[in-house]
Design a protein that fits this description.
By secondary structure, the chain is of the alpha/beta class. The chain folds into two domains: 141 residues, 3-Layer(aba) Sandwich (Rossmann fold); 59 residues, no CATH class. Helices cover 45% and strands 10% of the residues. It has eleven helices and five strands; from the N terminus they run βαβαβαααααβαβααα. A five-stranded parallel beta sheet has the order 3-2-1-4-5, with helices on both faces. The longest helix is centred in the C-terminal third of the chain and has 16 residues. The chain is elongated and about 60 Å long. The relative contact order is 0.13.
Length: 224
């Protein structure tokens, strides 16, 4: 079974990328697609080098122009304009509008695609689109449990909020020390800890944060 998981070359990797992309690639022998046409303004070479340190199979996105334009012809304006992520973005352009079509191209030839729950609408659209041109579409393996910001755990962890983001080359102890311990914050820390089979003890936050920082350092410092 050929399995695919994708990532955009949009800056440094954080632990959310590890749990959603690198870890599945290692455990499930999935190809890691670097979707360079999804973020064409970024240099993808540093990402290639980082991923190679984890011994995963890296695949650079190739664009089959004939297939892409064929799929564009089979896509309706109404379908694309109803995509939630397009409607939610403040800045709209044609590249973002056609993103689900490009995503459909990426999937051709695969049996399974590992994606976050937030990509469900895009994947369902891609499956309908590929069926219109008599191409087999892969099954979606949807992964939940998103890693949230350390400083605002109501938001997804993102490089745009560096204080709340655990990059793979970070000072984990310092970052975790400042992590909020509100109810959503504790829930987020427990979710991170569970990825390492560690039962985070909220009654001893300071000590639990130190233990978690040690686990992160052991996992990533030798790779970065």
């Amino acid at each position: 079974m050929r399995t695919l998981v994708g990532i955009r070359p949009s800056g440094k990797l954080h632990i959310g990328h590890y749990f959603s992309v690198i870890k599945p690639a290692i455990l499930e022998n999935a190809d890691v697609l670097i979707a360079r046409y999804h973020a064409p303004s970024f240099n993808f070479l540093p990402l290639v080098e980082t991923l190679k340190r984890f011994n995963v199979s890296v695949k650079l996105q190739e664009l089959d122009a004939t297939l892409y334009f064929r799929l564009l012809e089979c896509s309706s304006f109404g379908e694309l304009s109803r995509m939630t992520q397009f409607k939610d973005k403040g800045m709209k352009n044609a590249h973002l509008f056609c993103y689900p079509v490009l995503m459909a191209c990426d999937m051709v030839g695969y049996d399974r695609v590992i994606v976050g729950e937030d990509q469900r609408q895009h994947l369902e659209f891609a499956k309908r689109l590929l069926s219109r041109v008599n191409l087999k579409s892969p099954e979606g393996d949807f992964r939940g449990g998103r890693i949230m910001s350390l400083t605002d755990p109501t938001k997804k962890m993102s490089k745009s909020d560096p204080k709340g983001c655990l990059f793979l080359d970070d000072d984990f102890g310092l970052k975790l020390q400042k992590a909020v311990t509100t109810e959503p914050g504790i829930r987020n820390l427990k979710n991170i800890a569970l990825q390492f089979d560690y039962d985070y003890d909220e009654s001893h936050n300071a000590e639990s944060k130190k233990i978690l920082a040690g686990l992160l350092s052991e996992k990533f410092k030798r790779k970065m």
